[in-house]
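Weekly modeling sync, notes
Attendees: S.R. (lead), two postdocs, one rotation student

Agenda item 3: backlog of single-chain predictions. S.R. asked that every request posted to the team notebook include the full sequence so nobody has to chase files. The rotation student volunteered to paste the first one in as an example of the format we agreed on. Action items at the bottom.

Example entry:
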Amino acid sequence: MSSGSAVLWTLLALSALAVIGFLAIVVKFIARAAVRYSRRRPVQAAAFFTVPGGLATFTATFFDLALVPAMVIGVVAGLAVFLLVAMELG
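Predicted structure, as returned to the notebook:
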């Protein structure tokens, strides 16, 4: 392995560690806000997760997508909306 290749692999490893560290901080911040919001208002938190998730699952199955991928789309959509609301109100 040449020295240039070793330097590039080292930079790649350091940048991967930096991205993982940044994501860990962001996930910790979002998770704390989500838990705080769901403890304060559990009914609204469940509604903010269930309604968009159900609508996304229904829409995906309506357009002839299989059930399991449609459920994954629904969970991701519901979780995204819930986390956005939790970040804003938590």
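Discussion: group reviewed the output briefly. DSSP finds three helices and no strands in the chain.
Action items: rotation student to repeat for the remaining queue; S.R. to check formatting next week.
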